[in-house]
Specification:
Length: 361
């Protein structure tokens, strides 16, 4: 399926915004507890999504989420919105922003392994070479910076595991738009974490600090997450995460600019290693005969991707848009990635035609 370069550019923009959150959060932790800051960050994300969620098109749209998608959204809220940022901020309180930014590459490893064993994802030789390259770059950076504390590394690793699970769950959600998904994640997780933070200790930060927390959340966890979801639905979670793995390097650079933390020759070498790993990633596609069984769902799509040939007035085929639509059973072969329409294992094309998987509206 032709995906073009646009989803990749969206992931890079998402990575830059998310990478900026680490040094910005490090500065804000001087006045806020991890739970309080996590709550503000995700409430800011929800606020950033308000215009898109409540515009005329979204307000009049019919939500057709079945029980499976409701559970996926609930899991994304818990793991991605509540647990992930709290673990990260506890680690960030114990280590430098540059070190934490480097450790965030572990999210790639978590996403790849979860995708392989639980979410019908696929990686070929070139894909695994890309994974190894990213892990090697992260190891090289860690050797240059030191561990930064065992507990800090453990907290960041737990955050990455939570976000790896969140990546797959959000990539599989249909029935609501990415902005709606981000809004619910930010609203629920933000209120819960902020409530816990105020219950554990008094909220003593001033209005300026609170507003800065909301602003960082709006950009780094609101706009960034929405861009990532759009891209993951087209590229697949593992491949989108490979590009998103550049976020820690944005974090390291901004840590040097904003916090005065040092940059080394080893860090620049690791950046080159990451670039090579991304090249290997995009060499990794597979092609085989596969069957798409009938399904009805709602998600962002185009009409020039071999899977969306339905007709409706006033919509250019090359424009991304979202509405409820149905797919007939189709069997074909083409190079593809594990997006919403390719969560199959090899050999599924031989299954009986009456084995259908129609989502219920």
């Amino acid at each position: 399926m032709r995906t073009g370069s646009f989803p990749v550019l969206l992931v890079l923009a998402s990575a830059a915004l998310f990478g900026a959150a680490t040094p910005a959060s490090k500065a804000l932790l001087g006045d806020l507890s991890p739970f309080q800051l996590a709550g503000l960050l995700y409430l800011g994300a929800a606020i950033a999504m308000l215009p898109a969620v409540f515009n005329r098109r979204s307000r009049n749209a019919t939500w057709r989420m079945n029980r499976v998608n409701v559970l996926r959204l609930a899991g994304a809220v818990v793991f991605g919105g509540m647990l992930g940022p709290v673990f990260l901020l506890f680690g960030l309180r114990l280590a430098s922003a540059a070190s934490v930014s480097m450790w965030l590459n572990l999210e790639l490893v978590a996403t790849a392994l979860l995708g392989l064993f639980f979410f019908r994802d696929h990686l070929g030789t070139a894909g695994w070479a890309g994974v190894i390259g990213v892990v090697s770059a992260s190891t090289l950076l860690s050797l240059g910076e030191g561990t930064g504390g065992l507990w800090a590394g453990l907290m960041v690793a737990l955050a990455c595991l939570c976000w790896g699970l969140d990546n797959h769950l959000t990539a599989l959600i249909d029935g609501i738009t990415p902005t709606q998904s981000t809004f619910w994640k930010g609203s629920v997780a933000g209120m819960v974490n902020l409530g816990i933070g105020v219950w554990l200790m008094p909220f003593e930060a001033g209005a300026v600090v609170a507003c800065l927390g909301l602003l960082v959340g709006a950009l780094s966890y609101g706009v960034s997450i929405a861009l990532y979801i759009y891209s993951a639905q087209q590229l697949g979670a593992t491949r989108a995460q490979m590009v998103f793995a550049s976020a820690p390097f944005f974090g390291v650079l901004l840590s040097a600019i904003l916090l005065g933390e040092s940059l080394s020759t080893m860090q620049f070498a690791a950046a080159g290693m990451l670039a090579l790993a991304l090249v290997m990633l995009f060499r990794d596609r597979h092609d085989h005969i596969h069957t798409h069984r009938p399904i009805a769902h709602r998600h962002a799509h185009r009409h020039d991707d071999l899977h969306h040939d339905h007709a409706h007035a006033g919509q250019a085929a090359s424009l991304n848009h979202s509405h409820w639509h149905e797919h007939e059973e189709t069997t074909h072969a083409h190079p593809h990635w594990p997006d919403l329409h390719h969560r199959h294992r090899h050999g599924e094309a031989q299954r009986a035609p009456n084995e259908q998987n129609r989502s219920q509206g």
